[in-house]
């Protein structure tokens, strides 16, 4: 049976996607479930860019949200893939386009042809050619945009702005602007939350979307499985790079290999959100700062010092609490896999919520998904 009241702690992309998807699913299935989001305007974010996968665009369409408005109001840009610079050797780059030629042709035959002919596999991708020309996925016909292909693309954005935009678009969801100061245990997990204002909020089910704070799930004694043995990066130096007047915005994420890690670059309409991810077992924070400035050829002003413990919860669903997004796992700062995983996890959660074996099925599927992402990143 579905809970009568779902309480979500934390807004942002994960929190508001959770609220919108669960509200929509409850309505379609005829459940009288109400959803409350507790989000504090006092808690800031670093905001140095996030990428998505194409599933985010599919979510916009699912909720009939206008993509042009999304791009305009959030300063987002279009992402056609990831450019890997200097990974094989300095001066060599390769792209990972995110379109899927398998939708219009036999992908296995395309791959075999490319390998047999000694040509790049990505050559069969429409998005590769758009990336080569620094183009977007639309052509103009009679002054109107026309898609150049059938493939979904993704976005780069500032997650704080996207969270604010999703909050405006959310319907039928209660919002409390406050901070959680206490968690009252009861039953099989959490009974109620105490807020800074003194308000007490009871719920039947709780979603922890509080990011690295893990404000709710940490009360239930979760076990963290570290990936430090296979993902050695454990620190990040985030910063912004201002766009020059008239500078073209690349339709791809940059992943640029450095001596002790790699730099990310995520372009929005006003600036590039960037950062250096590295291992402090191999280089000091001060030397990492100097290394990235030498690579860029100019000074950068760090916006924080992020400690990374890559890994996941052994169980992200404990009792009547589900950890979502960064509260459940973290692999690397680009976060496209995290947002993608959030959407898939919400679909699974909605499917299995209220079923006898739902919790165990969800935890097993969550573990498989994150472990697959770990191997992909590795």
Task: Provide tags for this entry.
378 residues, alpha+beta, 7-stranded mixed sheet, 6-stranded mixed sheet
Give an overview of the whole structure.
The protein has about 375 residues and is α+β, with helices and mostly antiparallel strands. It has nine helices and 24 strands. A seven-stranded mixed sheet has the order 6-5-17-18-19-16-20, with helices on one face. It has a six-stranded mixed sheet with strand order 10-2-1-14-23-22. Strands 3-9-4 form a three-stranded antiparallel sheet. Strand 12 and strand 13 form a beta hairpin. The protein is globular and about 60 Å long. It starts with a strand and ends with a helix. The relative contact order is 0.18.
Sequence-ordered SSE layout with sheet pairings:
Layout: E1 5-9, H1 12-29, E2 34-38, E3 50-51, H2 54-62, H3 67-74, E4 77-79, E5 81-85, E6 93-97, H4 107-116, H5 126-132, E7 138-141, E8 144-147, E9 154-157, H6 159-169, E10 174-176, E11 180-186, E12 189-195, E13 200-202, E14 205-208, E15 224-226, E16 235-242, E17 253-258, E18 261-267, E19 271-278, H7 285-296, E20 306-307, E21 311-313, E22 317-318, E23 321-323, E24 329-330, H8 336-352, H9 358-377
Parallel strand pairs: 1-2, 1-14, 2-10, 5-17, 14-23
Antiparallel strand pairs: 3-9, 4-9, 5-6, 7-8, 11-12, 12-13, 15-21, 16-19, 16-20, 17-18, 18-19, 21-24, 22-23
């Amino acid at each position: 049976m579905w809970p009568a009241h779902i309480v979500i702690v934390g807004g942002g992309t994960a929190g508001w996607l959770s609220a919108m998807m669960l509200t929509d699913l409850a309505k379609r299935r005829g459940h009288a479930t109400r959803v409350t989001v507790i989000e504090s305007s006092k808690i800031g974010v670093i905001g140095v860019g996030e990428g998505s996968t194409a599933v985010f665009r599919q979510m916009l369409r699912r909720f009939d949200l206008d993509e042009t408005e999304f791009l305009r109001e959030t300063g987002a840009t279009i992402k056609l893939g990831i450019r890997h610079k200097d990974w094989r050797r300095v001066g060599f780059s390769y792209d990972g386009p995110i379109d899927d030629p398998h939708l219009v042709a036999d992908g296995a035959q395309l791959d075999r042809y490319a390998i047999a002919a000694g040509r790049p596999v990505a050559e069969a991708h429409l998005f590769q050619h758009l990336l080569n020309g620094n183009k977007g996925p639309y052509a103009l016909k009679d002054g109107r945009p026309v898609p150049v292909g059938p493939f979904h693309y993704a976005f780069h954005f500032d997650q704080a702005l996207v969270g604010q935009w999703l909050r405006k678009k959310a319907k039928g969801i209660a919002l409390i602007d406050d901070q959680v100061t206490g968690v009252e245990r009861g039953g099989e997990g959490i009974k109620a939350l105490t807020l800074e204002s003194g308000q007490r909020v009871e719920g039947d089910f709780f979603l922890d979307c509080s990011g690295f704070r893990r404000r709710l799930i940490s009360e239930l004694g979760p076990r963290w499985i570290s990936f430090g043995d296979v993902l050695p990066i454990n620190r990040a130096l985030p910063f912004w790079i201002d766009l020059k007047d008239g500078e073209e915005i690349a339709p791809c994420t940059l992943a640029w290999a450095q001596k002790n890690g790699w730099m990310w670059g995520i372009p929005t309409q006003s600036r590039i959100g960037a950062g250096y991810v590295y291992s402090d077992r191999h280089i000091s924070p001060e030397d990492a700062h100097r290394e990235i400035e030498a690579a860029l050829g100019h000074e950068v002003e760090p916006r924080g010092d992020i400690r990374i413990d890559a890994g996941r919860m052994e169980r992200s669903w404990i009792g009547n609490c589900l950890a979502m997004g960064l509260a459940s796992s973290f692999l690397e700062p680009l976060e496209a896999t995290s947002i993608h995983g959030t959407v898939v996890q919400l679909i699974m959660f909605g499917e299995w919520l209220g079923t006898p074996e739902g919790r165990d099925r969800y935890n097993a599927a969550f573990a498989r998904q994150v472990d697959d992402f770990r191997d992909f990143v590795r």
